[in-house]
């Protein structure tokens, strides 16, 4: 099975050719995210050239995108990016444009980048233990959560958007001192722990966050909010595994802090061992593209079983 996989991110798109297993990336390229009119033709060109050079055709397409996106197959705007703060991408028919470029490829899947990653993680963790409910959180440029429940990705009215919920403010991080950076909500979770938000507290740029010491109080504050997210997920969708990934989580000391804070917040009310439940991404920074491939693989299997 030859898969064309696209991870649509706010900063860059990753395009990849994947064979059989979602992790089996045989070719990969990163493309800067500009406007749809500039970026999408580059995406299509990559796959068309690959087909030509290797005399092959793709069996399935998987697109995992930043959101919000329209996942309702009965909607006229199915496959569109909808109300994003990235204005050039608002109401963009991302799925349709890429499909068209690939000759209206018949087998395809479209979901949020985090739902795709949640599916890929569930496949991975099922190798060791039976996992049919899992949450994948990304903490980077934005904050997003994908959820697989009883082996199904959660869709409904929309799709999970758990980056934009409010939690109590951490000690030493009051609203008076820092109002948050979300253009829609101010101090929602994303407005408090996305890379731009953490950087703004230190008056540095996001790429300089790596220079902040492990012992800095900033990481305690970030862990407090992310612990709240984990406790909320554990209490609502009851995942067996919560994977936390994204650029910020390269600061690996955060894992222990989040596990400890989550344990403290739960206060023995639920018998949840957060030291087991909260895990690092087994695919590192490739979670999104492997997720896109997993979506395509699932669509192919559903069609051909
Ligand atoms: Zn928000």
Can you tell me the number of structural domains? 2
Structural class: alpha/beta
**CATH homologous superfamily name of the largest domain?**
ATPase, nucleotide binding domain
Report the total helices: 9
Low-confidence residue ranges: none
Coarse shape: globular
CATH topology (fold) name of the largest domain: Nucleotidyltransferase, domain 5
CATH class of the largest domain: Alpha Beta
Oligomer: single chain
Order of helices and strands: EEEHEHEHEEEHHHEHHEH
How would you state the average pLDDT, rounded?
96
Bound molecules: zinc ion
Q: Fraction of residues in helices?
A: 25-40%
Give the neighbour order of strands across the main sheet.
3-2-1-4-5
Termini gap: 13 Å
Please describe what this structure looks like.
The protein is an alpha/beta fold and 305 residues long. The protein folds into 2 domains: 2-112, ATPase, nucleotide binding domain (Nucleotidyltransferase, domain 5); 116-284, Nucleotidyltransferase, domain 5. 35% of the residues lie in helices and 19% in strands. The protein has helices at residues 36-54, 94-101, 113-125, 189-193, 195-201, 217-236, 253-266, 274-277, 287-304; strands spanning 2-8, 12-19, 25-32, 60-65, 108-112, 134-139, 143-149, 152-153, 241-245, 278-280. It has a 5-stranded mixed sheet with strand order 3-2-1-4-5, sandwiched between helices. Strands 8-7-6-9-10 form a 5-stranded mixed sheet, sandwiched between helices. Helix 1 runs parallel beside helix 2 (94-101), helix 3 packs across helix 9 (287-304) and helix 6 (217-236) packs across helix 7. The protein is globular, with a radius of gyration of 19 Å. The structure holds zinc ion. Zinc ion (ZN) binds at residues 164, 182, 184-185, 188, 190-191. Keywords: ATP-binding, Carbohydrate metabolism, Kinase, Magnesium, Metal-binding, Nucleotide-binding, Transferase, Zinc. This is fructokinase. It comes from Vannella robusta.
């Amino acid at each position: 099975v030859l898969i064309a996989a696209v991870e649509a991110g706010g900063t860059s798109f990753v395009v990849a050719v994947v064979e059989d297993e979602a992790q089996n990336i045989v070719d990969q390229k990163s493309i800067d995210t500009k406007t749809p009119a500039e970026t999408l033709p580059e995406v299509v060109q990559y796959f068309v050239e690959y087909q030509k050079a290797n005399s092959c055709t793709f069996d399935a397409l998987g697109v995992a995108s930043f959101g919000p996106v329209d996942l309702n197959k009965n909607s006229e705007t199915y496959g569109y990016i909808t109300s994003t703060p990235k204005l050039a991408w608002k109401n963009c028919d991302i799925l349709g444009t890429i499909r068209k470029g690939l000759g209206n490829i018949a087998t395809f899947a479209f979901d949020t980048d985090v739902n795709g990653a949640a599916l890929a993680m569930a496949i991975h963790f099922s190798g060791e233990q039976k996992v049919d409910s899992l949450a994948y959180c990304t903490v980077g440029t934005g904050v997003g959560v994908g959820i697989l429940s009883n082996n199904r990705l959660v869709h409904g009215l929309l799709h999970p958007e758990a980056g934009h919920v409010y939690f109590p403010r951490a000690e030493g991080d009051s609203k008076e001192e820092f109002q948050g950076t979300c253009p829609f909500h101010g101090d929602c979770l994303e407005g408090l722990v996305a890379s731009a938000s953490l950087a703004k507290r230190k008056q540095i740029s996001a790429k300089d966050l790596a220079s902040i010491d492990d012992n800095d109080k900033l990481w305690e504050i970030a862990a407090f909010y992310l612990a709240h997210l984990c406790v909320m997920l554990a209490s609502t969708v009851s995942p067996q595994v919560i994977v936390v990934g994204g650029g910020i989580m390269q600061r690996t000391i955060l894992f222990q802090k989040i596990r400890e804070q989550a344990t403290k917040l739960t206060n023995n009310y639920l018998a949840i061992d957060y030291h087991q439940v909260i895990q690092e991404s087994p695919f590192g920074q490739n979670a999104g593209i492997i997720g896109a491939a997993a979506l395509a693989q699932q669509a192919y299997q559903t069609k051909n079983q």
